Every structure is written in structure tokens, then in C-alpha cells.
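Q: Hi! First time doing this. I have a protein sequence and I read that you can turn it into a structure. Is that right? Here it is:
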Amino acid sequence: MQKTLTILGSTGSIGCQALEVAEHIDIKIRALSANKSIDLLEEQTRKYMPEIVAVCDEKAARELKKRLSDTKTRVEQGKKGQIIAARESGADIIVTAIAGTAGLEPTLAALETGKRIALANKEPLVCAGEQVMQTAGKYGTEIIPVDSEHSAIFQCLAEERSYNKINGKPGDIIRLDTSRIKKITLTASGGPFRGFTRGELANITPEQALNHPNWSMGKKISIDSATLMNKGLELIEAMHLFGMNPDQIEIVIHPESIIHSMIEFIDGSVIAQLSNPDMRQPIQYALTYPDRKPSLTRPLDLTAINKLTFEKPDMDAFPCLRLAYEAAKRGTNACAALNHANEDAVELFLKRKITFNKIPELIEEALKEALQNPG
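A: Yes, that's right. Below is the predicted 3D structure, encoded as C-alpha cells:
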């Protein structure tokens, strides 16, 4: 039987690639959603003919409804529309790819369906990780991570899932008995400014920060990659997904972006997942798991790459990573404050209202305030 798919955030980078993958492996689209990019959403709707589309911006939703009046697609609007797309499409799999904290409520709504969630937005776990995982457990919802690093960890833990089943330790599909795991290593490309000093970062422009050397991503995540905050958010995400504490998660700079993450076990064995940097691979794995199918990703040729290099992150030049570790150790409120402050600071930087180095300064101020006033 043909699988069906809903994509929340279909006009973003991940959403567009998810549509490409779905077409490649013959998955039918049931629902799509966007913030206000209705030109692209209309194009997607006419190509894939979903039953529901949702537009968060209500004015844009009304315009799209007029444009799609010749189709059978139902147009929903506002935040409520995103939740309707999650709950009422009846899809087998829901990709949650709405950027930022705006994705929290739709992600929770998707989890309540009990359908598989291909989780592509890390902010819900950063801001409300306990609630997200408790909701998944309550409704028996399967979460498969789409972030390349967390997908890599998930793939490396295949043996652990089998081991847990044999030993009668149910839990949900990701939260595992971690007693045999020593640490997780998340790799980071280092972004466009790897090797820069803090002084050299003072006059960085948004255009420079958006120019990532390995990955094609949206604006917000590209800036997060440039500040290394993206890796900090991934640290917090990994804590919740895999039941680890911050001291068990290591960040390593790996500029080639070939090894996406590694697991070290208590016996000293290390298992890594390797592939060319292409988000279509982890997206497809989340849609087909536990099966694998030929993908659109270019095959890996290690002889052409020639070498794989690793180095420690410079937390003096890139203090966002240090702040993320601190928030991770302090708990949910600190993580939420970190995330909100980062979203605001990135927006100010993109609007040229603050400098690149001001981003971590604003985040640190917000984090200190949150820790002083935990209520």
C-alpha cells in the first residue's frame, strides 16, 4: 500500500527536499503547510494535489484560497490551520519542519496523532523537550530524527534497539537504555568562519554568514551554523532524544562533513555514520525506516575525499556553544531562554541592527536573567 505524507513547513529547505524525496520513493502527499510563501505553496499544491494546505499568515491564506478555487484542496489558515493539517490529514508520516518555536504547537499536535513523526525542527525539543517526549510516550508515537547528526546517531544505535527488545526494555523507539553507551560525538563543519578569532568576526556581514561551505539551508539555521549555536541546539536535542546528559555529548569540528555523528560504547568501540552532505539521505531514512531504498544522494568515494580531519571547537571565538552547554546543564527554562534570545538576536543581525559578535552577548544576558529569575 502506498504511504502518505504530511509536511509541516513545506516551503523551507527541508520541506522542499522532503517533497523531492517523497516523489522519488512514491509517497503520496496528504497535507502541506507554510508561513506565507504562497507562490511556492501554490506550485507545490498544483503538483502534488494534497487534500489540505495550511498558511499561517491569514492574509496570505485568503489569497491562496482564491488562487486554488479551481482545485479540491482545502485551505486552512493561522496557527489553527497548521494544527488541522497535522491532525486531520490522516497521513502515515508527518514531517515537522516549521522553523523556530512556531513549530512547537504543530509538533505536539502531530505527536498526538500517534503517527510516525520525522522530526526536522529542533526548537520544540530545546524549549519543551520533556513535554515533547512525554507526549510521544503517551500516544505511542514513533519519532525519527531528520537532522543529519541525530539521524546518524539513530542509525548507529540500531544494535541497541535490538538489544533492548531482546532484554525486554520497551520505552519508545528512541529513548534507550544508555548503560552501554559512553558518549555521543556530534560533528560540526565549523561553518564559514572556522579558524577565525573573535576579533576577526567583529565585522562579519549577514551575506558572509549565510554562505555555508557544505550545506544549503534556510537563513536562520545558516546563521546558527556560523555562530555554532546550531550545534548547541543539537546538543540539547540529543539529550532529550537519546536520554543522555550534557557531559556525555561531545562536539567535534569536522570540516569535511562526511562523518555525521559517532557513538562510543563502554568497551571502547566507536560506530560512525558516513555519507556525503545531503539532507535528502536522512529525510529518506526517516520516511522508509526500518527499510532502506536507493536514494538521490551521491555515493561516497573516500579516495576522492582523501582525508578526514577533526579539531576541538573554539568556544572563545564562538561562545554560543559554551552558552548552550551551560543551558543544557541548567534545565528546560534555561534552554527555552537560550533559544528565544537566539531567535531574537539572529533576526536583529539579519536586519543589520547588531553585529555578529553581539549575538552571543545578547544570549548570555538573557540566560543570566533567566537563571536569576527562574519563575
